[in-house]
Design goal:
By secondary structure, this protein is of the alpha/beta class. 54% of the residues lie in helices and 16% in strands. It has 2 domains: 2-205 and 295-348, Spore Coat Polysaccharide Biosynthesis Protein SpsA, Chain A (Alpha-Beta Complex), CATH 3.90.550; 224-292. The two termini are 15 Å apart.
């Protein structure tokens, strides 16, 4: 068995040493494994820490992105560099314990699963606000989307190569990876665990990033907001027709329609509703516009490995993979195109 451990890193210099020590201890008995650390435009000494680990440990592979792309894109970059039969996704802050790997492998083998995802029973060291908003978000998503996204789960999961190949074949720009894995289907089983507090440093997911991730999740997996916008517009139009009838009846009976204040209030309400609906349409339209550009998801500055020749090969594989994934299958190619793409990626690796 060959295992790839993928960890996006943004300003994680204080955690890298302990993270590497614990992952190495867990993977020591597996035989073949690699640890892929993706530097997502860090402004501290994270890159220097990754370079030091690469020099000291041949299992470590460093991916330095050209700039900060965000957690989900950095994770995607790591997944596209994986060569293992199994892939474990971790965060470098050690909130998700790598020691659960043995339990995940055992559960995957016992239940013949394609994905084992960590499902949180508790969250240590997080504020009441973050805990409650996260719980509300997952329950809202369950009502909005047509797929089954497990409650209280993050990106912490173990997947096989087949699942990773399908995931790497999904080219959307605004990525919500835990939802994308759920969309794939196959056999996915949970592993309950208690999430730890950060080993060091502060969270890199402030409120505005959480809101942006929530918008990516909702717009990427549901058209219900568009339907609600249409229903709201229809309801407002119906109310407007009733008010028009009321006004005409008053005019025909000689009663003057009074109340400029109420009229202005109604205009403000209608104007606000229209702007809100335009905002909903704009979110979807903006995402369509970005997808239509067909830009690469990320640019790799350089790949760091213990052997320079291996780094060159990984860079070539990444470029070849980007070329394969940039192809748009014809409408009549269907399943054969997707299967062919997956086979090409597997041959590269």
């Amino acid at each position: 068995m060959f295992l790839s451990v993928v960890a996006p890193c943004f300003n994680e210099s204080a955690n890298l040493g302990e993270f590497h020590r614990r992952v190495s201890a867990v993977c020591a008995g597996l035989g073949s494994w690699e640890l892929i650390l993706v530097n997502d435009g860090s402004t501290d000494t994270t890159l220097a820490g990754i370079q030091d680990l690469v020099r000291r440990d041949p299992h470590v592979v460093g991916i330095n992105l050209a700039r900060n792309y965000g957690h989900q894109i950095a994770l995607t970059a790591g997944l596209r560099h994986c060569t293992g039969e199994y892939i474990l996704i971790l965060d470098a802050d050690l909130q998700d314990p790598p020691e659960l790997l043995d339990d995940m492998l055992r559960l995957m083998d016992d239940q013949d699963a394609d994905v084992v995802y960590g499902q949180r029973r508790g969250r240590t060291g997080e504020t009441w606000f973050k805990t409650k908003t996260a719980s509300l978000f997952y329950r809202l998503m369950r009502r909005l989307v047509d797929i089954e996204i497990p409650l209280d789960t993050g990106d912490f999961r173990l997947m096989n190569q087949r699942t990773a190949a399908v995931l790497n074949n999904m080219p959307e720009q605004h990525r919500f990876i835990r939802g994308m894995v759920s969309w794939i289907g196959l056999r996915q089983v949970p592993l309950l665990y208690d999430r730890d507090s950060r080993h060091a440093g502060e969270t890199h997911y402030p409120l505005h990033r959480m809101i942006r991730l929530a918008l990516d999740a909702i717009t990427g997996f549901s058209v219900l907001p568009l339907r609600l916008a249409s229903m709201t517009g229809t309801a407002i139009g119906g109310v407007g027709l009733l008010l028009l009838v009321y006004t005409l009846v008053g005019w025909m009976t000689g009663r003057v329609v009074e109340g400029w204040t109420s009229l202005m209030t109604l205009m403000l309400i209608l104007g606000g509703a229209q702007l809100l609906l335009l905002g909903v349409f704009g979110e979807y339209l903006g995402r369509l516009y970005m997808e239509s550009k067909r830009r690469p998801l990320f640019v790799v500055d350089r790949v760091l490995t213990h052997q320079p020749s291996a780094a060159a090969r990984r860079e070539r594989v990444t470029l070849d993979m980007a070329t394969i994934l940039s192809r748009t299958p014809g409408r009549d190619e269907g399943q054969d195109a997707t299967r062919g793409t997956s086979d090409e990626i597997r041959n590269l690796l």
